[in-house]
Amino acid sequence: MVKDDGSVRADAVDLDIAGTLVRVVCEDPAGVAVLRTALADHLVDEPAPLGFSLRVPAGMTKFHLLVDRSGFILARVGTIQEGLAVLGSHLASLIPPPPGTVRIRARVFLRDDATAALAAFPLVVSQPVIERRLQHASLRIVDRLVVDLRLDTHLVMSAAPWPALRDLPIAPGHARAPAEPTPIDTVLIPRLSRDAPSQADLVAFLAAVTCSGASRADRLALAESLTATRVAVVPVDDPSVMYAPLRWRPPHI
Amino acid sequence: MSAGLDGEPVAMDDDRAFDSFAPRARRDVLIRDFDDGIVAWSPIASEPRCLAPLSATVLQLLDGDVPAGELVADLCAVLEVPEGAARDLLRRELSLLDGAGMLTTSHPSVEPERERDVFPAPPNP
User: Fold this and answer.
1) Distances from the Cα of B33 to the Cαs of A73, A147, A215, A227, B10, in angstroms?
2) Which helix (H) or strand (E) holds B52?
3) pLDDT tens digit string along B41-81?
4) Number of inter-chain CB pairs under 8 A, A vs B
C-alpha cells in the first residue's frame, strides 16, 4: 500500500510451516488478506525470521517483485495474484520432501515436452532468471529453491497444499511443481575452476548440494546418476550463457 | 599439528615425531571409485571430497600400524622423489585427509547440516 508520503506500507505474516518459522512481508493489502486466509492453519503470533517479501511496483518498474530474505529476486510478475502463486510454491519448499526422494539445492526448468533441466546451486541465485527470455526459450522455472529427485533423476515434488494460492494464475515463465514424475536430462553446474571437472569432481559437487534429510549413500547415488545426464558447466556470473544448454533436448530415436 | 592415536598432539613439523606417528584412516568412510578419482565422504564431514589418485592411495595405506616414516620410504620408492619431498607430500596429504574427516583422529566438521533451511544465503541485515 502506497501511503500519502509516497512510501509503501508492508504487513508481516508470520507462519509455522512444518516446524519452520518464516515471515512473509507483503506490500499489497489485498495480498495480505489472501495470505492470511490461505495459510490460516499456519499463522503464528510470534515474530518469525524473514523469508520472503512481495513488493508492489514502485518507481519506473511495473512489476511486482518476490524476493527472498537475502534480497535475491525470485520473480518479476505482472499482478499480485501471480506473485502470490509464486510465493505459495516457494513456501511449499518448507514441507518435507516426498518419501524416496533426495532434496537438492537447485533450480529446475521445465520444457514443453515434459522434460526438465537442473541448475545446481549457486546458479540462478544472485543472477535471477529473466521471465521474457524463459518464454522465448519455451522454458518455465519451477518456483522452489530446492527440488526433490528420485534416484533415477526424476523430479517428484509435492504440490503446494494451499489451493487458494496453488490455483492462482501462473506467471509467464514460471511453473508449479509438476504433477507427474519428470525426467531430468540436463544438469548445469557452476564453473568453479579453470580446469574441466572430472566425473569425481562433479559427483562430489552435486552430493555437497544435496540436503541432509537423505542418507549419504543415496545422496552420492543421486549425484552419480545426475552426472550420467548431459552436464554443462556454465559461469556463475553470466546467466546469458545458460539458456542454450537449458533448451537442449535429447534426440528422438 | 595433528592428533596422535592416543589423542596427544603430534608435531607435524618435527620430522622424528612425524615419522613415528602411525595415522589410521576411518573405516566408515563412504567411497565411490571413478575412472578419474574417488569421492570419499566421512561420517563426520558435512560434504564429500573428491580425492586425487595420490590422496586415495595414501588413504588406503593408513591402517594405523605403519608409521609415517615407513610411508615416506614407500613414497620415495614409488614416486622416485627425495625423502624430504616425500615427507612434505605425505604431510600435505595427511593434512588434507584430516581436514576431510578421513582419519580416526580427525575432528568432526563444524559446518552445520542444512536440512531445513531452503534459502541460499543468510538474511540480509
Assistant:
1) 39, 27, 18, 14, 31
2) none
3) 999 998 999 998 889 889 988 999 999 999 999 999 988 99
4) 88
Residues from chain A that touch B34, judged by Cβ atoms under 8 A, are: 198-200, 203
Q: What is the ipTM of this complex?
A: 0.80
Q: Scan for cell 505482472, then name that residue.
A: A78
Residues 33-92 of A with CB under 8 A from B: 49-51, 68-72
Strand locations in A10-68 (E): 11-17, 20-26, 50-55, 64-68
Q: How far is B101 from chain A (nearest CA, A)?
A: 15
For residues A56 and A84, give the distance between their C-alpha atoms in angstroms, rounded to a whole number.
12
Distance in angstroms (rounded) separating the CA atoms of residues A160 and A143: 10
Under an 8 A CB cutoff, do A220 and B32 touch?
yes
Least Cα separation, residue A66 to chain B (angstroms): 14
**From the CA of A22, how many Å to the nearest CA of chain B?**
10
Instruction: Report CA dihedral (A63, A84, A89, A191) to the nearest 10 degrees.
Output: 20
